[in-house]
Amino acid sequence: MEKRVVIVGSGPAGLCLARALSPSGAKIALIDSQEADSLENPGFDGREIALTQRSVAVMKELGVWDRIGADKVFALSEARVFDGKSPFPLRYGSNREDDRLGCLVSNCDIRKAAFEAASECENVELVAGTSVVSLDIGDRMANVSLSDGRELSAPLLIAADSRFSFVRNQLGIGAEMNRLGKAMLVGRVRIDTPHDDVATEWFDHGQTLALLPLGAGMASAVLTVSEGDATRILALDPDALGQELHRRYRGRFGTMEPIGPMHAYPLTTAFARRFVCHRAALVGDAAVGMHPVTAHGFNLGIASVRHLTDEILPLLERGADPANSAALRRYERRHRRESLPIYLATNSIVGLYTDDRLIARAARRFGLRVAQTPPAQKIVNRILMRPQAKAPRLRLPGIGGRLRMG
User: Fold this and answer.
1) What is the CA angle 44-49-54, rounded to 5?
2) Is residue 231 one of the residues assigned to a domain?
3) What dihedral angle (degrees, nearest 10) is formed by the CA atoms of 87, 89, 95, 99?
4) Which of 24, 191, 347, 370 is the 20 to 30 A CA-CA neighbour of 16?
5) Res 33 pLDDT > 50
6) CB 61 within 8 A of CB 392
7) b vs e for 258-288, b when ≥16 Cβ sit within 10 Å of the residue's Cβ?
8) pLDDT exceeds cutoff 70 at 352
9) How many other CB atoms are found less than 10 A from the CB of residue 81?
10) Which range, 92-101, 198-207, 218-227, 378-387, is most confident?
11) Residues spanned by the domain of 274
12) Angle at 289 between CA 19 and CA 201, to 5 degrees
């Protein structure tokens, strides 16, 4: 079954890319191992996504943003990072309305909205409930064999199938994989002390804690702990869990009442050694899988969609080869230029703040004091927030039709 583009992975990056390429009229296939019902109605998974203003602008252009209710969007004015008991935080963002970091939206709400937006595109077909078992990249076509026996072919194959990407491995593209031996626990809580729409993070001995603001009286508790601690915490009943959180957060937010269970995710970062190869490209976490400390994973995923769309949408509209090597190389240069400084800066912060040696503790104290100076604030905001560039003007198809099920 020949398509013009085959995208493996129907997470937010894959869905947004399909939506972005759909104005070309080219036939696009989205492959995912999950069943269609799960993709259309994703369950709450505990993850709250910090979106920059630029990502929100792109999502508006794609017709995704307006499908997320205003009651599901939470203001994020500023972020502060502390080292243990130190009163000097690393700060980025501002309380000024025109210079806020962005907002927080649940991962499941983004996924649902992206699915609905892609569903309107009659030239996008969902091939759900099956997975890729092998690839054959020829001179003119990328051929994909699926677990249900079907085969798909297209001039261009896109890997959007997570930081552990099977497609990336099959393409022979290596990646810097850092398995950190930690687990991230996330879950919503009610709190007594106002958070003022500020996200706060503490690096402490043997653990990292964060609190993400979700409107008045509610927040997301994020704990990075050893896998053994994670197993123990997950087994606690609600009352015991609330007491555990109160103790770990040192009572900073008063009573912490869990709203539902905690969710656990192993921490692994990834950076692909290449983002493209012959007739294939990587987007989202398949290209760059970030540590959550600077909350840039989803934003870089949206950036990869933006960069790749800029390069291949004109080719699809002209009926030209979407796997044009010059276009794919331009995509790789653009996305590497944007993602690598953030990836390296994030890893440096994590490495410094989780090092308990005396020299590292002294460096942290010195660094946090320096971070309060205006020049340092400007540098931090430039690296971690990124300039709020104008979003691309993506031409979208008219409303109508539904995502065809393969």
Assistant:
1) 140
2) no
3) 170
4) 347
5) yes
6) yes
7) beeebebbebebbbbebbbbebbbbbbbbbb
8) no
9) 23
10) 218-227
11) 5-177+269-390
12) 110
d(CA 23, CA 398): 9
Structure-block tokens of residue 103 = 């907002």
The Cα 328–Cα 279 span in angstroms is 9
pLDDT higher than threshold 80 for residue 364: no
The reply to whether the predicted model has a pTM over 0.90 is no
- What's the gap between Cα 112 and its chain centre? 15
- Under DSSP, the state recorded for 99 is G
End-to-end CA distance of the chain: 11
Beta carbons within 8 Å of 46's beta carbon, 6+ residues apart = 186, 187, 188, 220, 262, 263
> What count of residues does the chain have?
406
- Whether residue 57 is contained in a domain is answered as yes
Contacts 24+ apart (CB under 8 A), 325-329: 325/278, 328/276, 328/281, 329/276
**What are 214's two structure tokens?**
């979700």
CA–CA distance, 312 with 19 (Å, rounded to integer): 13
Residues 6+ apart with CB under 8 A from 21: 5, 28, 309, 312, 313, 316
The count of domains in the chain is 1
**Of 262 and 403, which is predicted with more confidence?**
262
- Residue 307 belongs to some domain of the structure: yes
Is the pLDDT at 331 greater than 80, yes or no? yes
Spatial contact of 134 and 145, defined as CB atoms under 8 Å apart: yes
Backbone angles phi, psi at 266, to 5 degrees: -70, 145
Provide the pLDDT for residue 159: 98
What residues have CB less than 8 Å from 367, skipping those under 6 apart?
A: 90, 352
Encoded tokens for 393? 């003007």
CB 283 within 8 A of CB 156: no
Residue type, 19: R
Which tops the pLDDT comparison, 356 or 396?
356
How many Cα atoms sit within 13 Å of 220 on the Cβ side?
A: 23
**CATH at residue 15:** 3.50.50.60
Q: Is residue 309 part of a domain?
A: yes
pLDDT, tens digit (0-9, with 9 covering 90-100), for 168-219: 999 999 999 988 888 999 999 999 999 999 999 888 777 889 999 999 999 9
